[in-house]
Amino acid sequence: MPYQPFAKSDRLGKVADWTGATYQDRRAANKYSSLFGSGTQYAYYHEEDESTFQLVDTARMHKPMHQRGRFRMNHQRNMRNRERQKLVQQQQLQVLSKSAKGRERERLQQVRKWQKQMRQKFDNKGQVGQVKNREASVNVRPTWKVLEEMDFPRLGKLSLPGITEGKDVYTCGSIEYFDKAYNLVTCKNEKPLQRIIRIFHKVTTTDDPMIRQLAKTENSVYSWDIIVQRVNDKLFFDKRDDSEFDLLTVNETAAEPPHEEGNSINSPRNLALEATFINHNFSQQVLKMGEEKHSFEKPNPFVQEEEEGEVASVAYRYRKFDLGEDVGLIVRCEHDGVTYGPNGELQYISIKALNEWDPRTSGGIDWRQKLDTQRGAVLANELKNNSCKLAKWTVQALLAGSLG
After folding, report:
1. What whole-number distance in Å separates Cα of residue 195 and Cα of residue 281?
2. pLDDT digit string (tens) for 92-107?
3. Which residue in 45, 159, 326, 347 has its CB near the most CB atoms, within 10 A?
């Protein structure tokens, strides 16, 4: 009988292991090997070809994604449980002083805060990359005849070269002077936002009495539309009366835009209402209210006699642009305030405000920590998250000829 040398200290393993996945760790590669080495008694020698021979698959088995790192997570969880039990036992054995109790209370609060942030991180992990199907502002009917289709890349390449500067046709309303003391506001020298009761008019084009006498962007994510009405050889671009066209969006172009629905304070609509409310009050608070105003040649065309309340500081400039080929464009522009330049000249300004809502979900930049020391980083983050809103404000300021 053939004899295979062995030692009593050798460990008995499996009868057969076809995958080899058991011994992935090199330190355990020789766990079940013999101390004397293997003999040649049972070695296989090829003598003749067998046509029935089949190769056994020895490829390494890949674990699913949901199983990878499970051992590490379980190990960390067990370590935390043991440390927690050890801490409880120590607290039961010793009497803490008043200051020690305060420090322990703060430490537990930090632990609970960290655990809450980790739970939110893992809860939101499955939502990253999900594409939400948003409702269109206008449903395309199958009976409509398609005249032309234009995609966003083609739309972004369009330009109107040779457009001259617009000419003022009418200037209406009155505006207050800007209070330069607000240029010195910082996180340490802060001023609370006040609630200012004033009337803002957002009138569509065809309801504008001055227009009677006489947009588009590829960055937008939310659906919107405008109404085009043709009267003889004139085209009027209007907004719908029941639309939310004038609401200011928040983080519309961010990698993870607001997705909560319902009555949550972080729902897209509630955030837009908050941003609009902030801009209305901020644009009036930074002005020298109650002092001398700068008035234009015509009064505010939207003020009615039966209207009660103070009208907001706003001026309207109706400007005409020549687009060529006998096409003219009249735009109603707005100014929020006026100030004096370095040489004493009048400068019309447009006052807008960006607001912080949740630094954990809006780029991770805390304004109170970064705004005074790293304003460029805050602005770059807002340019990325609100590119559509900032583009609208920029176009409005350029058309009106005002400073931002």
Report:
1. 6
2. 555 567 677 777 788 8
3. 347
